[in-house]
Amino acid sequence: MKFTSSITTGSMVLAGVLIAGIASSTPAHAHSNDWATPFLGGVMAGHILTRFGEQRQQQTQAMQEMASGGGGYGGGYGGGYGGGYVPAPQYYAPPQLTPQQQLQQLDQLAAGGYITPQQYQERRQAILNGM
Q1: Which of 63, 68, 96, 103 has the fewest C-beta atoms under 10 angstroms from its C-beta?
Q2: Which segments of the chain does DSSP mark as H helices, in order?
Q3: Residue 77 backbone dihedrals phi, psi, to 5 degrees
Q4: What average pLDDT is seen over the chain?
Q5: One domain, residues 64 and 6
Q6: What is the mean pLDDT of residues 84-110?
Q7: Model-level pTM greater than 0.85?
Q8: What residue spans of 69-114 are helical by DSSP H?
Q9: What is the tally of structural domains in the chain?
Q10: Are 27 and 41 spatial neighbours (Cβ–Cβ below 8 Å)?
């Protein structure tokens, strides 16, 4: 859809430039109505600017719908598929240690002097109670 609208807008701009070029290359004395060329150029430019504004508004609305999770094929974060699909972040919890591994880790902390003997006893009892 974007590609098609770009071609349409590009061809309209090109047509406007060609019309302005052809109209300005003809001698002024050949026309009895010198107001027609600027008038048609203004109409063409107004049409192009209006279409550009409408396209910009549609793009903004589509982006807002995607961000809010509405419209399209599920849009938003973590739903459906489409051009704006962004997968939801996945967080993994570290694997649970067995009670033996927890006791070994606790022994290492105590041996290294990172915890007091009282903390060692409290945590050791909590591990044993959780079995």
Answers
A1: 96
A2: 2-25, 36-68, 99-111, 117-129
A3: -90, 125
A4: 73
A5: yes
A6: 86
A7: no
A8: 99-111
A9: 2
A10: no
**Which residues form the domain of 123?**
99-129
- pLDDT, tens digit, 9 for 90 and up, residues 115-129: 999 999 999 999 999
| 77 three-state secondary structure | strand
User: Is residue 46 a part of any domain in this protein?
Assistant: yes
Identify the band that residue 31 occupies on the pLDDT scale cut at 50, 70 and 90. Answer: low
Buried b (16+ CB within 10 A) or exposed e, 17-37: eeebeeeeeeeeeeeeeeeeb
C-alpha 42: how far from its chain's center? 36
The structure tokens listed for 53 are 């504004």
Cα gap 27→31, rounded to integer Å:
8
Asked whether the beta carbons of 17 and 67 are under 8 A apart, the reply is no
Which residues have CB under 8 Å from 86's CB, separation 6+? 77, 78
pLDDT: is 43 or 63 the higher one? 63
